[in-house]
Amino acid sequence: MAGLMNCGDLTETLERHVQFGVPLSAAEQAHLQACPDCQADLAFLSDLQLALLEDVPEVTPPPGLRAAILAQAGAARPPLADPAVPAQPSARPTARPARRWWPAALSAAAVTGLLASLAFLTPSSGVAGVLPDPAVVVSTGRDVLVASNDQGGTLTVLRGDRVQASLTAGGTQTPWFTEGVRLGDRVFLADAANDRVLEVQTEPLQVRRSYAVPDGVAGLSAVSGPGGARVYFKGVRGEVGVLGGAQVTLAHEDGMPLADVMDGVLLLGGQLFVTHHLSGELCALNPDTLSVQRRVILGGMPVALEAYRGDLLVLDVNGRLLRVTPDGRVVRTWAVPGHPDKFSVNDTTAVLSDRAGMMTRVPLTGGPVSQVPMKHPMDVATLPDGTFAVADGGQGLRVLDSGLHTTLTLNAAGQSR
């Protein structure tokens, strides 16, 4: 063991780091730099992940291959202890707990052979060419859920560049998905055209429940805490409420076209913040009683909210990004070109989507605002590794790094880059 951290505790974290992009803490990074054993584990896991991600053609496995692999794996695994035989004390105490069997037990040649065999046993999933009109994208950590505004309201789960599952949500009207939020193993999708919020389970993919929302939903926020799990919504005509619970009227409006259905909802520091873009307001509500505690006039048309280092980031569709303290003080303003209406944030960067055909990068710690053109960006979500997934309407899904460089494109032609 190097330092104060137990190597056994780090093993599972390294697996999540390699597989899902979960960041390492400062203490974990310090231990990794000083521990050759953990460095070797990380190198092994990285090589294994790259090998597993290799794109292999679909091939029919030869007869008896499955039995041979299972027999070989069983031979490599240490034998299970016989409960009838008392355990013998170790001749020498170990300095750290035993690691998982497979990194230590499999030689490089065995891993290579096993991976080659798995290529036969694991058929290639369909490339993500079934994203007819992506409108909302939600990261679930391991996967990405894409909701499309096509006739059937197609929901697609992607893992990397592969389709894991797909279904059609249907609806009386052609769905118009405006926003999605994750809560545990569920994703909640706002469908403004059908006045509902869908509760979706992604593994296996299925719609668990449909919540009716009066006059349509313009914004969503999900939270899980001591008071239980809640999903808050902002209605098209000014209602604010909890799915399946109480609601209040923040304002009385006549409604709006589907293309203009947009507002932000966010629970932060014990307050529920809601934008009302028709009046230029940011409202703070009691999250339990839904009573309005404060109204802040920001002007413009604020439409989306994100948390950032204890403050709020407020996106104004008229071309501003504001940093606002929980008590309502504007402490910084970034001017942005165009009319962006969705955005997402990693630790240092905000990326904004403008349906007119532009993605905007705002460096939150300093530097110039920059842009790249796109066809019809409808939504953007931050992925666990800090990159951004963009639902490009009618085109497919793109993954951008923090510099707005496209690292992956999934569309009707398959993986183009």
UniProtKB/TrEMBL annotation:
InterPro entries: Anti_sigma_zinc_sf
Protein's UniProt name: Zinc-finger domain-containing protein
The species this protein was found in: Deinococcus seoulensis
Domain of life: Bacteria
